Amino acid sequence: MKRRVGGLETEYGLVCVRADGSRALEPEAAARELFRPVVAMGRSSNVFLRNAARLYLDVGSHPEYATAECDDWWDLVAQDRAGDRIFADLAAQANERLAADGQDARIHLLKNNVDSAGNAFGSHENFLVDRRGEFTRLPRYLLPFLVTRQIVTGAGGVVRSEPEDGAAGGAPAQFVFSRRSDHMWEAVSSATTRTRPIINTRDEPHGDPTRFRRLHVIVGDSTMSEVSTHLRFATTDLVLRAIESGRALPELALHDDITAIRAVARDLTGTAPLPLAGGGTTTALEVQQRWLDHVTEFADESEQAVLETWQRALDTVRTGDRTWAAQNLDWAIKERLFTQVAERRGVDLGDPAIERLDLAYHDIDPGQGVFAALQRRGLAPQRLAEARIEAARTTAPTTTRAHLRGQVVTAAQEHGVDHVVDWTTLRLTRPGAMPIQVLDPFTTELPAVDALLAEIRSQGTAAPAQPMPFA
Q: Does the keyword Metal-binding apply (predicted)?
């Protein structure tokens, strides 16, 4: 599939604390305060926005944002960054209300995967695949890539191993490529929480079920760096295209994917031996390099920048030279930052100050988040122009079905017309209104949608409704 639609679902950590750091509101109460403008606008905590993205409150009081369908991975990064800013605005408004009410309380939204109590939440990647392909064959080749991809796209973090039986104390804290790896329990499964898999097989295509299937990858870290987020999708897309091509592929199936993913996370050299299913061993670096070399054979000119960035990331691990990566890739930015702070304070990586720094790195508040501060100092990447990110807050991608959904939501909100939309369906809520189904994710024009837009404009209020207060 040369042209593929994808999307990213991000669950945000939510905490509301007093000035002294103690908890001010329980997550449920903080979530209600955060979503107050959303409910006022859409009479629900589950809404689709003008940019065709979905914003909602997930199980466990996790605010979640699902980007619109994108067929350009930089468009997806822009949509993802727009989601951060929409939620940051909601948090700022909630904090203003709490302050006006005299409460010593401040809401923080954290774009990470693991909180201080060890609870995990997700950053799920979605890729359109052809229903006619052999989906059961796909994990055999994709899993080794996903297990080792963290040496390029991991968010980085610190873990402390549990003490062995009879041992006193725990192992020293160590920096890892991905803390998410310790929360994976199966290679492939239809579950998402109880036995969290690398690939989720729940069959929800959000499109024509006779033509499409949705590949749901839930192993990825929530990434702050635009470079890291782009690489997550661009490299995986290239590997999927290679698998779909029918050509001979690297045989790199691992003996135990879950054991391997934990080993890869802890080996910052990328050279730890990983047992293969067919005997022998490989390494994380070798798996990634084999796939990079393989996809290079068919990548076109427009994808050369992705290949070069992928290679630079692998060279970083191979040589130990962090010069480039420490300003571009999340794990390397955090490794340098944590090491500098630990050395300056004379503490080890297991110190609570480092844990607080990790959380602050993922705080999406543009005024308080550490990543945003690093960007202002030129120590973290900002590849997308501000205008592109701001436009993505209210404008859907124009080359996918999202364009139609965005038009309908925008027109309905501007003219005060009640409506209901989801990933595949558009309709008004008036009696007798018929739903319009858009099952092809690549559809950008449809006469039925044109007629629906005309009906909205004719039935709407003379004075357009106010725009969303948070986008």
A: yes
The reply to whether 407 falls in a domain is: yes
Residue 390 marked in a binding site: no
Question: 401: domain CATH number?
Answer: 3.30.920
| Domain total of the chain | 1
Q: Is the pLDDT of residue 163 over 70?
A: no
- 436: containing domain: 392-459
pLDDT at 462: 54
**156 within domain boundaries:** no
In a domain, 429, yes or no: yes
What is the model's pLDDT at position 464?
Answer: 53
Distances (CA, A) of 139 to 2, 24, 188, 434: 19, 44, 8, 40
Mean pLDDT is lowest, of 222-231, 266-275, 461-470, for 461-470
Catalytic residues: 58
**Residue 423 assigned ligand-binding role:** yes
Q: Is 186 annotated as a binding residue?
A: no
Residue 445 within a domain? yes
pTM attached to this predicted model: 0.95
**Residue 166 pLDDT level (bands cut at 50, 70, 90):** very low
pLDDT band at 228 (very low <50, low <70, confident <90, very high): very high
| 64 annotated to bind ligand | yes
